[in-house]
Amino acid sequence: MRPLSDQETKTLFEKLSKYIGRNLKYMIDREDEKYCFRLHNDRVYYVSERLVKAAGCFGRKEILSIGQCLGKFSKSGKFRLQITALEYIARYAPHKIWIKPTIEQSFLYGNHVMKSGLGRITDDTERYEGVAVFNMADLPLGFGITSKSTLECRTGTSGDIVAFNQADVGQYLRDEETLI
Amino acid sequence: MMSSISLDLGLTAISDITPIDRDELKANVEDYFLAVTTKNMQILLSVLLKLPKETDDTGNVIVTLPKPITRLPRAKPVPVEPEPTRWEKFAKQKQIGKFAKGQKRERLVFDETDQQWKPKWGRNKITKVDPQDHIIEHQAGVKVKPGEDPFEARDLAKRESKQKQKEREEENIKRTMKKAGVPNRGVPASVALPTVLFPSAGSTSKYQKPPSVEASEAGVNKMLKLAELSTRGRGLVDPTRQLTKQKRTKPGFSEDKGKKRSGFDDEKERNLRIAMGLGFKEDGVNDSKAGRMAHKMDGGLDTSDLGSLLEKPKKKKSQPKHTRGIAGMNKKGGRRGHSGGSKSNSGKTMKKH
After folding, report:
1. CB-hemisphere CA count at 13 Å for B153?
2. How far apart are the C-alpha atoms of B204 and A133, rounded to whole Å?
3. In this predicted model, what pLDDT tens digit does every residue of B41-67 receive, in sequence order?
4. What is the pLDDT of residues B211-256, one digit of tens each?
5. What is the pLDDT of residues B260-312, one digit of tens each?
6. What residue ranges of chain A are covered by domains with CATH 2.30.130.10?
7. Hey, which of B71, B233, B294, B323 would disulfide with B237, CB 3.0 to 4.6 Å?
């Protein structure tokens, strides 16, 4: 477990800011407790400093996971956000999508969001914007990338894809083995 | 001129060592060589036809060639004296069988059944028939497993001993090949190489023996280094093709070597600095928003003070609470009303401060 290098931090922040934008600074600089990012076995964890200090007692092989796993770095240095980061994305995302109950299950199975299932969308969402996906009861279901801006969503046929599924809560069942 | 031509009829070869006439050669290379070759060929053929001839049944003329004069160099290296096998060493020491002094292996053995002398091995050899083949006597002291077929056991034992013998023979071949310096490349010794590739140790040849391949990391690295050398210029001309110096391209922690890293506060500052260094989309003007706001205004847009129009009044909004649990669940009220379209202000954004 080690802190991230400058390049790695930059890659991570670029990815995160796609979904949470400027609110990234609330993750870095928190009021209640100090949190930091740690790298362990190619995965990035968002941990409180108190926990990091406690984890210093353990060796590398003995630690499985710590804090919140945000995602993992690939072998070529690219960062991939995982569903385990949903808590923070849902909390801080400026752009959101609410989907209807009809399409909710489909989304949880990994499918993309169709226009027919789109309940609400934040104003002024651009195209290919990172969004957090909620159901109509304001429960976060996952996150994705819009394929249309808000204006474009109003027009267009109901069969069109409105948002691409990047991660959904159903992955906790589907990709159980790879998530830690 | 004739003295410079020598014939080796055994190899049907003629060698002409007359010096080349440079002027004639320069005039026309093809013609010169053609003239020389035709002349020599005529000489060779005329001498060949003077040899004793025979005629074949089908009318072919056969000429008996004499023995070749030229001594050709060895095509293959000197055969290696095979090292005596373990058995041979033992038998020699103990003077067993054919190794016994004064012993001579007799080819012919008297066959009782046929009342004849027959060779011990080879064609028409005597066949050894065991009269007790259909019976296996019980030997006192030898334990027999219940349900075991003694005939099958005998056959199995015979097969196993044959297998063991084959293995021993392979070992012998391997030992000889090792002595000859043949590289062990994992080819089974029974499929021995027809020629020894490199001369055996002790010869004054400039060729080096190849290293034996070890199935280990060190062995593989050895071969890798060899492969690197096997370019033009023996690895020196193309230094960029160094195979062993490839590095992993993933940027890692070692890049930050030398940079001061101390404590958590320092880290927070560093993170903030990096975060601010990224360009955010919200920095620019959101055109659609500006357009919408202009529409909303009564009496159109007052362009005199665009700055104040674009900036929303600063709200003192506290940070979202860092409460445990999933965001959204803590909000008051249950289901929010279905607003038909996508116009909604429930997605409250954190405006730029």
Report:
1. 9
2. 80
3. 999 999 998 998 888 888 888 888 999
4. 455 556 666 677 777 777 777 776 666 655 555 555 555 556 666 6
5. 666 667 888 888 888 888 876 555 566 666 666 777 665 555 555 555 545 44
6. 95-174
7. B233
Which of the 8 DSSP states describes residue A156? S
Interchain proximity A123–B342, CB inside 8 Å:
yes
Which A positions 36-95 lie with beta carbon below 8 A of chain B? 36-37, 49, 73, 75-77, 87, 90-92, 94-95
A:20-39 residues touching chain B, CB 8 A cutoff: 21-26, 28-34, 36-37
Contact A140 B328 (CB under 8 A): yes
* Length of chain B, in residues: 353
The CATH code that applies to domain A2-86 is 3.10.450.220
CATH 3.10.450.220 boundaries in chain A: 2-86
Nearest chain B CA: its distance from A177 CA (Å): 23
CATH number for the domain running over A95-174: 2.30.130.10
- What predicted TM-score, i.e. pTM, was given to this entire model? 0.44
Query: From the CA of B169, how many Å to the nearest CA of chain A?
Result: 50
| Cβ separation B326–A92 shorter than 8 A | no
Evaluate whether ipTM surpasses 0.85. Answer: no
| pLDDT classification of B137: cutoffs 50, 70, 90 | confident
Task: Give the DSSP H/E element, type plus range, for residue B315.
Answer: none
Report the distance separating Cα A150 and Cα B343, nearest Å. 9
- For A15, the closest chain B residue by CA position comes to B278
d(CA B149, CA B170): 32
Q: Does A176 touch chain B (CB under 8 A)?
A: no
